[in-house]
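Tokens as discussed.
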């Protein structure tokens, strides 16, 4: 095993472990197909078990390279142990090994992705009705409840769960027994090998199995990692932009590994973990791009796409989502500061135009023209929406109505109705569309999000149970050859 791999995996879930599992499965399948007799199978089994024990000794180099392992097997069990390699090649062994290593790595990444989603949901539930500003092109576009804001990110991460789940389904297919590229004359039961190693199915075409499917499988893994990292980077950047304010509405609780201080500026509390998350997301995208660039424009049969970037990407993905969950669990929300920012902007004025059309049949263009004039006038005079003079609003409306030929040119809203229409809380309450910020929809989306997290956790349990059952099947079948 190379140094990079040894840094990533433990002694019982490394390339040697999975090579040994493949050898055990091969011994069973060879015996069942009549390619070897029982005496040979027993010798093979004793040899595999003996080498497994030897590989547990301190300082032993555990490698997944069959060319390095076969001499050690022969040294223990004699030349007849080489029958384990009938119908196989290093090519299909490597293609299978990559998948066997990726499966638990993907499931582990999905576990922490679920934890990050749950942490977001917990935050959203705590402040579900509180308003905060959201932005387009750097300017406030609306004030929405925290529950709506959080549901947006959990919905995005729901998609990322699906992306990585689809990558898992692609990885969880067996190329073993495909030989170099064209199988062999040994009647090796490839389906049996697949079942013993817990794969969902066999990749049938042997050339595709060994040399092409690995490209697509790796690409799916790094693509899922890339899109998830972009979502995380977006969240981190949105939170980080608030630190330019004297008082952000989201802040990280101070503590070791969470925040840092300046060596010369006592007033500064730096968002250390937030910075780290954003940088990790970029590093993960870099790993994914390395795989993509390394694998493109290369003829099949080359080793370029068979390297460990997808495995490394899953390790980085897991760490990233762990840190996202930790970050979210330590976020404090200042409702008063957020509401002050919402109330400082005229982001509810689209609702003013809507109310005029819906309740008073004022053409939308006229209502929008009036709302735009109101925004310009209010900002020019330094007025917040709640303080906009009603008499000035009536005058502005009269100008807009007369220009459009609408008479009488009288604002059809009394002062209370006018003030209410400029409130973000009113905009939220009046929202009527599927997926909007109104309380009923926020509640529905958050309930659905929590149910989705629970369903995905159940799916993960099902996959692990299937792998455990396959491992038990292999143990039993291998024991019968001893």
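Sequence:
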């Amino acid at each position: 095993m190379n140094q990079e791999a040894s840094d990533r995996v433990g002694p019982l879930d490394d390339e040697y472990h999975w090579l040994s599992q493949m050898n055990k499965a091969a011994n069973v399948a060879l015996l069942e197909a009549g390619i070897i007799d029982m005496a040979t199978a027993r010798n093979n089994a004793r040899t595999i078990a003996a080498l497994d024990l030897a590989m547990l000794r301190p300082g032993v180099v555990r490698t997944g390279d069959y060319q390095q392992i076969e001499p050690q097997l022969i040294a223990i069990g004699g030349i007849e142990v080489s029958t384990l390699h009938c119908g196989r090649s290093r090519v299909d062994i490597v293609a299978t090994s990559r998948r066997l290593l990726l499966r638990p790595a993907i499931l582990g990444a999905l576990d922490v992705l679920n934890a990050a989603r749950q942490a977001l949901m917990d935050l959203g539930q705590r402040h579900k009705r509180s308003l905060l500003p959201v932005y387009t092109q750097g300017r406030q576009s609306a004030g929405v409840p925290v529950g709506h804001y959080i549901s947006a990110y959990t919905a995005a991460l729901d998609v990322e769960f699906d992306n990585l789940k689809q990558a898992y389904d692609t990885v969880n297919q067996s190329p073993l027994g495909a030989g170099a590229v064209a199988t062999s004359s040994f009647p090796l039961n490839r389906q049996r090998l697949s079942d013993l190693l817990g794969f969902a199915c066999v990749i049938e075409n042997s050339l595709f199995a060994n040399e092409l499917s690995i490209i697509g499988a790796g690409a799916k893994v790094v693509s899922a990692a890339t899109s998830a990292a972009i979502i995380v980077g977006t969240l981190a950047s949105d939170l980080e932009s608030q630190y330019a304010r004297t008082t952000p509405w989201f802040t990280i609780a101070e503590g070791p590994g969470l925040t840092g201080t300046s060596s010369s500026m006592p007033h500064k509390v730096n968002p250390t973990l937030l910075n780290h998350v954003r940088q990790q997301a970029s590093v993960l995208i870099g790993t994914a791009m390395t795989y993509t660039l390394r694998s493109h424009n290369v003829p099949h049969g080359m080793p370029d796409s068979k390297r460990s970037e997808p495995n490394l990407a899953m390790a980085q993905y897991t760490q990233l989502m762990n840190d996202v969950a930790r970050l979210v669990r330590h976020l404090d929300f200042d409702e008063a500061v957020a509401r002050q920012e919402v109330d400082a902007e005229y982001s509810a004025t689209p609702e003013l135009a809507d109310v005029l059309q819906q309740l008073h049949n004022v053409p939308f263009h006229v209502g929008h023209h009036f709302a735009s004039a109101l925004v310009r006038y209010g900002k020019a005079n330094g007025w917040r929406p709640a303080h906009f003079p009603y008499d000035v609003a009536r005058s502005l409306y009269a100008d807009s109505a007369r220009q459009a030929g609408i008479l009488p040119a009288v604002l059809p809203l009394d002062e209370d109705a006018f003030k209410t229409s400029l409130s973000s809380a009113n905009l939220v309450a009046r929202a009527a569309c599927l997926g909007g910020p109104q309380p009923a929809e926020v509640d529905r989306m958050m309930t659905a999000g929590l149910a989705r997290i629970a369903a995905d956790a159940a799916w993960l349990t099902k996959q692990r149970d299937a792998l455990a059952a396959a491992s038990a099947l292999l143990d039993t079948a291998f024991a019968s050859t001893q």
